[in-house]
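Our consortium's second objective concerns turning raw sequence data into structural hypotheses that experimental partners can test. To show how far this objective has progressed, the report includes one record in full. It was chosen at random from the queue rather than selected for favorable results. The single chain below, 132 residues long, was entered without modification.
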Amino acid sequence: MAKVFTLAEVSEHNTNKDCWLVIGGKVYDVTKFLEDHPGGDEVLVSSTGKDATDDFEDVGHSASATAMMEEFYIGDINTSTIPTHNKYTPPKQPQYDQDKTSEFIIKLLQFLVPLIILGVAIGIRFYTKSST
């Protein structure tokens, strides 16, 4: 029977001298593989202390890479010690109210149109007065 580790126990092994990963509910001691990993040792060390299943699957490892993992298998993870992933839900956005937008535009135009007419009238008065 395989040994069962908690996430806290696995998290203690988070250096390039002692590196354990949790992938698919299993614990792997990948310390000996760090130098041979094609992506470098930093990729593996950065995945310690958490469930690295998503990190592993996102890369798209080959069948031979998955088979190679068995030689580093040291036990299982107690899944109750892994925090659940909270799905991100964006905050509620206020509903776009088209009626209020048109009201704003009307109020803006009610303010700007008289100013533009006044400006044009003053401009015409200024240029016609100076030319005579």
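The partners drew two points from this record. The beta strands are 4-5, 14-15, 18-23, 26-29, 73-77. The longest strand covers residues 18-23. Both points have been shared with the crystallography group to help prioritize constructs.
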